[in-house]
Amino acid sequence: MKEYSYSIDMPHPAARIWTTMQDYEKWPEFAKPMVTGIGVVEKGDDKGNGLVRQVHYKLPLGIKGKSTERVHDVTPGVGYTYTTKTGTVGIIRLEKLGPSSTKLHFTEKVKYKFPFSLFEGRIQKFVEKYNRKTMENMAQWLTEHPEYPGKKS
């Protein structure tokens, strides 16, 4: 199992980032080119624990895939953990730095199934690069859309 992590400073309040991250209909607008859609398969509890989402994505060479993720350990406005059917575990945490400044922390322990496990190193570099790019794109998207407050949780 491979692990990577990164942190990104974002010039937005944590609450705004949090609500945007929960608005799965908006993800394709800022998660390009990797994420092409996210659908909610099962709603979770009032905090989001137990939510099951299906993330559709593109990999190199035009390969399309999907990841079914169960969200748990939710602290609203702060972070959550997700676990995929294959055993990948991701952790997202928002650290408030100021009224309009947040540091996003992301860690993922990736487990690939055969045949993807044969290309683990190459795929890992791609996934790491584009997961980070997705969060950077979200920060940019929020800057470009000051009217968007995010859905009310």
Quick overview:
The protein contains three helices and seven strands. With 153 residues, it is of the alpha+beta class.
DSSP strand count: 7
What is the N-to-C succession of helices and strands? Answer: EHHEEEEEEH
Multimeric organization: single chain
Counted by DSSP, the helix tally is 3
Uncertain parts: none
Rounded Rg: 15 Å
Give descriptors for this structure:
alpha+beta; globular; seven-stranded antiparallel beta sheet; 3 helices; 153 residues; 7 strands
Layout: helices, strands, pairs:
Elements: E1 2-10, H1 14-22, H2 27-30, E2 35-42, E3 52-58, E4 64-75, E5 79-84, E6 89-98, E7 101-110, H3 120-144
Antiparallel strand pairs: 1-7, 2-3, 3-4, 4-5, 5-6, 6-7
Tell me what you see in this structure:
The protein is α+β, with helices and mostly antiparallel strands. It is 25% helix and 41% strand. The chain has a seven-stranded antiparallel beta sheet with strand order 1-7-6-5-4-3-2, covered by helices on one side. It is globular, with a radius of gyration of 15 Å. The model has no long low-confidence stretch (mean pLDDT 88).
